[in-house]
Specification:
Largest sheet of chain B: 6 strands, mixed
Distance between the termini of chain B: 14 Å
Oligomer: heterodimer
Low-confidence stretches of chain A: none
Strand content of chain A: 15-25%
Strand order of the largest sheet of chain B: 7-8-9-3-10-11
Order of helices and strands of chain B: EEEHEEEHEHHHEHEEE
Helix content of chain A: 40-55%
Structural class of chain A: alpha+beta
Structural class of chain B: alpha/beta
Number of helices of chain A: 13
Strand content of chain B: 25-35%
């Protein structure tokens, strides 16, 4: 006869409520692990999905994710000239916060190197990749935009042509994918008044210079668009992404490029490490420590619950001792209940999490390995928590049954 | 087996506390109970009856004195000469003032558990438990939880549990206190029946003088001192 089962059956409502309580507690522990994983996964997601071997960034920076990087667009052509380089693409990336439909729209804008990269690699769940150089955008579902929806960014109007799943920046913002040119247009957009003021300032600077005094006709150029002035640099890009030909040593190619004085190079793994050990490290450690704390709290609460459940059964335990039950029977009664309570709590936590976690603003990722680890921890907690109850039960004298 | 000694105590003494707070609960209490004999232990509250019962039930140790069961010395002062819990399980059945059933087990399970703890398989244990409940007239309430049974029914289930392992000794501490006189008389007669039919030695602590006719021997305790008052030949009860 399984006494643990019989006791649970008799106190089903109370046991069920206790299991739900423990389940909710474990769901938070599980959620913290999921948030931790989500943070790490989000940080490295773009780097892993974009499919590049070498990142070329501004010299002595850790860009383009960990810090700002600015390189000339012609770096793409310089990289293509290096032996072993299969392809080189522009990478434009920045975060903006605008307003759309009366709500704030915070997003990471990713510029693709048109026409070599149209976003065919993106995890689309609806719509299509980019088909034209301008005014098309692919949005992550986290942004809440619909296919065909129109979006004002800068002076231009963009149409949502595709929806992605889980294209998220390291800070958890959904991504907007456009061509690199559009990304730059969004990034460097200035108002008409700012343009007029800049042109006036440009003319004033020219008038003060010797060249402006000697050749006043040149000052008329100050009022022309920046793109038409050779003296004004074209907008810069964040980085260049390089794919290495099969059979070539990526490290050798990276070392060759790193030999140029204006750039630094990072492998895909190095970029991932920069993000995880840099940008998200503190948040990662904070969540990790909080998870440990929650696990300890869960253990203490479970110990108290199991101790209380044991106290409620002390008379029955004394009676069992009186009629000659060996300690193993009493130990089994408490331990089986503790393990069942822990496992039931774990299952409840898992299923509650399946419903609740998708509604969190950031991704909560439950890895099987983490779930197995938590299940083992719960079992260990259950056993450890029951020690107090077992200690109390083993100290009970059969006399207590007599009263 | 009859006429063989089931319980024999020699000069049991129990002292609680020390110095000014010292209380002598038992003073050289000696008793012999034979198989098939029903013994009543009378006395006012605080006279030491329950202390004596708990000592021969191997629950408490005496300060000095010996307890032998079925001819085997089990307790000698504060020394145990056997695993007391195992010995209790195999040889002693208990019935208390309150039925003391395990609340999360049904009537039949309360009886079964005693047998399963003693190594009997669950099917055989259930069969015998049902026989016992039938014998005691509560088979129809076998699947009811203790809270669903009347006081008398609970007490009969407790008696069934005490009989489950066919113990050589049954110890009952005021088993009729919570029952009306009719039910109380029934329970006392039941003990006598069990003793005479199954050859168990039965010791009943009681205040209930209305049922004394069922006992073979009556002991009386006062201030820890035990005196034998009456002995009837076992042959009278067949």
């Amino acid at each position: 006869m399984n006494l643990a089962y019989k006791d649970i059956r008799h106190n089903l409502g109370r046991f069920g409520l206790t299991a739900v309580g423990i389940g909710m507690l474990l769901m938070i522990v599980m959620g913290m692990a999921g948030i931790y994983r989500g943070l790490v996964e989000d940080a490295s997601l773009l780097i892993n999905r974009i499919g590049t071997d070498i990142w070329i960034v501004q010299r002595d920076t850790r860009g383009p994710f960990a810090e700002v990087s600015r390189v000339a667009p012609n770096l793409v052509h310089r990289a293509l000239a290096v032996p072993g380089v299969a392809s080189a693409r522009e990478f434009v990336y920045h975060t903006i916060q605008r307003e759309h439909a009366g709500k704030p729209l915070r997003t990471a804008v990713l510029g693709l190197s048109w026409p070599t990269d149209k976003g065919d690699w993106l995890p689309l769940i609806a719509g299509r990749p980019l088909r034209q150089n301008h005014y098309e955008v692919i949005a992550d579902q986290l942004l809440g935009l619909q296919l065909g929806e129109r979006l004002d960014l800068g002076k231009d109007n963009y149409t949502v042509v595709g929806i992605t799943a889980n294209m998220i920046s390291s800070s958890g913002d959904g991504m907007l994918v456009v061509t690199a040119q559009d990304a730059q247009a969004i990034q460097f957009d200035t108002t008409g008044e700012a343009v007029r003021l800049e042109r006036a300032a440009r003319a004033a600077r020219g008038a003060r210079s010797d060249l402006g005094t000697r050749q006043p006709e040149l000052l008329k150029n100050a009022y022309r668009p920046s793109g038409q002035l050779p003296a004004v640099a074209t907008p810069q890009i964040s980085a260049v992404m390089v794919r290495v030909m099969p059979g070539f040593d990526a490290q050798l190619v990276a070392d060759t490029i790193a030999g140029w004085d204006d750039v630094s190079t990072f492998s895909r793994q190095a970029q991932e490490d920069l993000l995880i050990k840099g940008t998200v490290d503190r948040a990662r450690r904070q969540i990790g420590l909080f998870r440990v704390l929650l696990t300890i709290i869960a253990a203490i609460i479970m110990a108290l619950i199991l101790y209380t459940l044991t106290l409620d059964k002390l008379h029955s335990i004394a009676l069992l001792k009186l009629i000659g039950a060996p300690n193993t029977v009493i130990l089994g009664l408490i331990l089986q209940q503790a393990l069942f309570l822990g496992m039931l709590g774990f299952v409840i936590a898992y299923f509650m999490g399946q419903y609740i976690f998708p509604n969190f603003p950031r991704r909560v990722i439950l890895f099987t390995s983490d779930l197995i680890q938590l299940a083992l921890i719960v079992m260990a907690i259950s056993v450890a928590s029951s020690v107090l109850g077992i200690w109390k039960a083993l100290r009970v004298s059969p006399n207590e049954a007599i009263g | 087996m009859r006429d063989e000694v089931a319980i024999e105590t020699q000069a049991l003494t129990k002292v609680y506390g020390r110095g000014n707070t010292e209380v002598l609960a038992l003073r050289d209490a000696s008793m012999t109970v034979r198989h098939g004999e029903v013994v009543a232990l009378l006395g006012p509250s605080g006279s030491g009856k329950s202390t004596f019962l708990n000592t021969i039930g191997l629950i408490n140790f005496p300060t000095s004195g010996k307890v032998s069961i079925n001819g085997r010395l089990v307790i000698d002062g504060s020394d145990a000469h056997a695993n007391l819990r195992t010995f209790r399980r195999k040889h002693i059945g208990f019935v208390f003032q309150k039925s003391n059933l395990i609340p999360f087990l049904s009537a039949v399970e309360n009886v079964r558990i005693a047998m399963e703890l003693n190594g009997l398989g669950s099917r055989a244990a259930r069969g015998r438990a049902m026989e016992l409940l039938d014998y005691l007239g509560v088979a129809d309430r076998a699947d009811g939880l203790p809270t669903a049974l009347s006081g008398g029914q609970q007490q009969r289930v407790a008696v069934a549990r005490a009989l489950a392992n066919q113990p050589s000794i049954i110890l009952a501490d005021e088993p009729t206190a919570a029952l009306d006189s009719h039910r109380g008389q029934q329970v006392m007669e039941l003990f006598a029946r069990v003793a005479h039919e199954q050859g168990a030695g039965v010791v009943v602590v009681t205040h209930d003088h209305r049922s004394l006719n069922v006992f073979d021997t009556i002991y009386e305790m006062e201030d820890g001192v035990m005196r034998k008052q009456q002995e009837a030949p076992l042959a009278n009860h067949g």
